[in-house]
Structure formats: C-alpha cells, structure tokens
C-alpha cells in the first residue's frame, strides 16, 4: 500500500527523472530513504553520459547500499523510483538487500509511452554444460557439499 509519505518521496524520484532530462540524460530517477523518510542517496540515469549500459539509477543505488549500509539498515530502506526496475536492476536490488521498492510507472506503462523501451531482444542461452569442470571453483570457494 502506498502512503502519502510514499507519494511525497515518489514525486521526488519523478523530479529527479525530470532533472535528468534537462541534463541530457534519460528520464529516470531514484532515491533511497530510511524508515523515517530521510533521503539517504539519490541518482538518475547516466547511461548516455557515462557510455555505460549499467548506469541506471536503481543499480547505482543498489551498489551504494551494498557498500555503505549494513544488512540490517539496508533491509529497512525503501527505494523510490520513477519507473519499475528493469531485470538487471531488479536482480541487483535483491542482492543489495533493500527492503522495498515503490515505483511510479510500470514497465507496461513505459512501453506504452515509449515502444522502443520494450524492443530488447532475448539472448539465447545454452547450458548447463561442463558440470564437473565448473564445480571445482565453486566447491573450493564455498566448500564441498556432500
């Protein structure tokens, strides 16, 4: 459920997206907030400026949280973002241990507004293969599971 406090912070994420456009960047903005609503960090998309396909604000903030927050603190934070996180960012958010994500536009709404947003091809994947070879480094790092 989205509260009035959530809505206020979500509007800030949309403002960050609008500011990104004025800087020549893609229109996506995000922020991380503590349970009391204090903004901990903000970011906007800089994919073009940085020539880096991973420069999404959600991923930047996930990295920041993973390096700057302990697990307990990260689990109590909320990310507010102007658009639903893509698959790349969603995976990073899970790994960073953030507690919650609130977004303004869904992926479906984004694609309706900008059809190119949904034009990514799928990448064929083959596997698994070479189990015996690949298990060696895994077992040496994590310990053999018998």
Automatic annotation (TrEMBL):
<dbReference type="InterPro" id="IPR016193">
    <property type="entry name" value="Cytidine_deaminase-like"/>
</dbReference>
<dbReference type="GO" id="GO:0003824">
    <property type="term" value="F:catalytic activity"/>
</dbReference>
<dbReference type="InterPro" id="IPR002125">
    <property type="entry name" value="CMP_dCMP_dom"/>
</dbReference>
<feature type="domain" description="CMP/dCMP-type deaminase">
    <location>
        <begin position="4"/>
        <end position="121"/>
    </location>
</feature>
<protein>
    <submittedName>
        <fullName>Cytidine deaminase</fullName>
    </submittedName>
</protein>
<dbReference type="Pfam" id="PF00383">
    <property type="entry name" value="dCMP_cyt_deam_1"/>
</dbReference>
């Amino acid at each position: 459920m989205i509260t009035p406090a959530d809505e206020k912070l979500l509007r800030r994420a949309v403002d960050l997206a609008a500011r990104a456009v004025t800087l020549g960047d893609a229109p996506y903005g995000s922020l991380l907030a503590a349970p009391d609503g204090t903004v901990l960090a903000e970011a906007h998309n800089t994919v073009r400026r940085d020539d880096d396909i991973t420069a999404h604000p959600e991923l930047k903030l996930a990295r920041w949280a993973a390096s700057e927050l302990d697990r307990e603190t990260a689990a109590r934070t909320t990310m507010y973002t102007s658009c639903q996180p893509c698959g790349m960012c969603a995976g990073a958010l899970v790994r960073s241990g953030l507690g919650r994500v609130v977004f303004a536009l869904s992926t479906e709404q984004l694609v309706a507004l900008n059809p190119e947003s949904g034009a990514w091809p799928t990448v064929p994947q083959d596997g698994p293969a070479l189990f015996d070879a690949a298990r060696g480094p895994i077992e040496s790092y994590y310990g053999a599971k018998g």
